[in-house]
Amino acid sequence: MSNAILELRNAAIYQRENLILSNVDVEINKGDFVYLIGKTGTGKSSFMKTLYGDLPLSEGEGSIVGFDLRKLKQKQIPHLRRKLGVVFQDFKLLNDRTVKDNLLFVLKATGWKEKRAMESKIDEVLEKVGMKTKNFKYPYQLSGGEQQRVAIARALLNDPELILADEPTGNLDPQTSVEVMEVLKEINKNGRTILMATHDYALLLKYPSKTLKCDGQKVFEVVQKSA
C-alpha cells in the first residue's frame, strides 16, 4: 500500500436507497491538504459521512486510516473516529461546560484516565489554536471563530491521522474564516492530513491546494489555474 491515508476505488455512496455519488476514485496521501467543493446537494456531506462511518459504504472499495469501509462494523466506528478528527460547521460544543471541560469530556469518553496527562494534552491542543488563555470560558462567551478554534483543538485531542473538516468556515465572516484557515494550514504544515469540504471559493484562491469537486454524481480532481 502506498502512502494513502484514504483510498476509494469505484465506490458508490448512497443515502438510504438514493445514489448520491458513483464511480468514486479518490486517493489522499499522508500530509495532503485537500479541498472538497461542490454546490449544496451535490454530495459533499454524504461523502464526508461515509468516511467517518455515518453512512455505510456498500459498493466499491474504501479504506481510511487503516479501516476497511466495506467491512466496517458498528462497534468499530468509535475506534475509527478516534483516528479521525472531525470538525463541523456548527462547532457542536457543549454549552453547559467550559472550553476545558468540553475537551476533558472527549478525553474521558475516548478512554483517557490519567489526570495530569489529560491536562497536559488539553493545554497542548489549545496552545496550537491560540485558545489556551480562554480555557475557563463557556462556548456562549466566545465568538464564532473562537468556538471553531476550540472545535479544531477538540479534533486534535487523539492525534488523528486525518482531519475531516465539514464546512468549518460556513458560519463565519470572511476575516474569521481566514483566521481559522491559518490555524488549519499551520496544523497541516506540522504533518496532519486534512480534507476540508467548503463552498468558500475565496479561500481556495487565497490558499490553493489539491481540490476535489462533487458534481453530477461524480467526484473529480479540479486542476487550479495558477495566478
Automatic annotation (TrEMBL):
Keywords: ATP-binding, Nucleotide-binding. SUPFAM superfamilies: P-loop containing nucleoside triphosphate hydrolases. Signal peptide: none annotated. Residues 6-227 form the ABC transporter domain. The keyword Nucleotide-binding applies. One of its GO terms (molecular function) is ATP binding. PANTHER family: CELL DIVISION ATP-BINDING PROTEIN FTSE, IMPORT ATP-BINDING PROTEIN. This is Phosphonate ABC transporter ATP-binding protein. It comes from Mesonia mobilis. The lineage of its organism: Bacteria, Pseudomonadati, Bacteroidota, Flavobacteriia, Flavobacteriales. The gene is ftsE.
